[in-house]
Amino acid sequence: MTTRIAIIGGGTGGLCLAQGLRKAGIDVSVHERSRTRTERLQGYRVHINPHGAAALHECLPLELWQRFLDTTGTTSGPFSFVTERLRDLMVIDAELTSSPDPASDHHSVSRISLHQVLSDGLEGVLHHGKEFVGYRREGEVVVCEFADGTTVEADLVIGADGANSRVRKQFLPEAERVDTGIVAIAGKHPLTEETRKRLPARLTDGPSMVMPRTGAGLFTAPHELAGASSVNDETADYDPVLFDNTSSYVMWAYAADDRRYPGNLSSLDGAGLRALVLDLIDGWDPAFKELVAGSPEEAVSRLPIFTSKPVGPWPTSNVTLLGDAIHSMTPFRGIGANTALRDARLLCRNLVEARKTGAVRSAVADYEQRMRDYGFAAVRDSERSARQFVSENRAGRTMARGMFRFFQAVPPLKRKVFSDHGDS
Fold first, then answer.
1. I need a labelling partner for 240 at 20 to 30 A (CA). Which of 69, 171, 249, 420 fits?
2. What DSSP designation does 422 have?
3. What is the pLDDT of residues 324-370, one digit of tens each?
4. Coil, strand, or helix at residue 197?
């Protein structure tokens, strides 16, 4: 019997799963609330680690995998931990984290470009303008209902509709998402021949984690393109700075506990947020002020940080969850998208195998058990990193800075500890 699978949400994990299922010849449909492919484009880079790369390689058709590789950034510099005065604490050379096999390597890609790759070739599968409002069960069939009055019947529904998942709210109402009390302000500094002269190589060659003595942190990462990768579909109205994926840039994100910010933070526009960060990093190395000041106000935004709370096992049924819909995490380890891709790969494998045996429910149960283990472990690791990133504990921060300096001074130990950096 043919199993009809409906995926609610056309984000990274849902689209990757759809690509894998379609490649295997399984009946799948994706229902996305956005009316067009460009309505909810996100303009910052995303780091794809070996888990994410393996999932994309396995799920995408060969031509789309190659297209993904063609749109990734070319920056291959070291990952650096530095002080606010731009002094090295520890430098992790690219050789420690890179692989000759692209399917097990790290990549930098524009979220826009990644979404375009994942959406390509899904004509007749990806349906836009489908705002999910709820589902009901009719025997063994799940009927999904949308705001436009339409419905779709499925034998298995997968909620991949992001951190504010409506599928989760109905299916697992006890699964909560909470405010961490941390707020990030992020921006993009264009990388041109002229701006490159004003920034030190440490900020343009590779990612950097800036660790001041207490209370806040700054992450920077270049995304450098060797060739153009353009928004190639119905690009009607989008901001030419924030949503441009044809130009190189350095992304930065300043984060602190919300008590360090003024009470009017939520009312500030891009220019106001930029001015605030410049004030907060007063006394840092001038390069950081250049980075922030040179970012167009349209590319600066406020990002409150939320995280999910782990939930225990639930009875397996013909509804399940994927990615941020179940294990939403902070961005401080750069593993949220990769964990969603890991979900997609695992669930796709299980469902393809279940086609031979007919044991779809068992395939979903195995996926849920394994996903809970690694997914909520990633949530915990990510929140711990977030707390450390904004810690007001001066003694703890001093100890961490000293530890990084120690690792830098003992290369064999650094290689042993950080050989899997970013592959969490």
1. 69
2. T
3. 999 999 998 889 999 999 999 999 999 999 998 989 999 999 999 99
4. helix
Helices (H), 120-187: 166-171
User: Which residue's entry shows tokens 């069939």?
Assistant: 141
Per-residue pLDDT tens digits for 251-261: 999 999 999 99
For the segment 151-165, the average pLDDT, to the nearest whole number, is 97
216-223 and 208-210 beta bridge pairing: antiparallel
pTM, full prediction: 0.88
Q: What is the DSSP string of 31-89?
A: E-SSSSTTTT---SEEEE-HHHHHHHHHHS-HHHHHHHHHHS------EEEE-TT--EE
Instruction: Work out whether strand 156-159 and strand 319-321 pair parallel, antiparallel, or are unpaired.
Output: parallel
DSSP 153: E
> Are 109 and 68 contacting, i.e. CB atoms less than 8 angstroms apart?
yes
Nearest one of 283, 307, 290, 326 to 162, comparing CA atoms:
326
**In which band, very low, low, confident or very high, does the pLDDT at 42 lie, cut at 50, 70 and 90?**
low
Q: Which residue has the tokens 């003992």?
A: 410
Q: Which two tokens stand for residue 92?
A: 């992790």
Alpha-helical segments (H) within 94-181: 111-119, 166-171
The partner residues of 250 in beta bridges, in order of sequence, read 189, 222
Residue type, 206: G
Strand partners, 29: 6
C-alpha angle 204/78/180, rounded to 5°? 85
Q: How far apart are the first and last CA of the chain?
A: 38
**CA–CA gap between residue 89 and residue 400 (Å, rounded):** 10
- CA dist., res. 76 & res. 239, Å (int): 28
On whether the CB atoms of residues 203 and 290 are closer than 8 A, the answer is: no
Q: Closest Cα to residue 322, out of 346, 303, 306, 353?
A: 346
Q: How many C-beta atoms lie closer than 10 Å to residue 227's C-beta?
A: 8
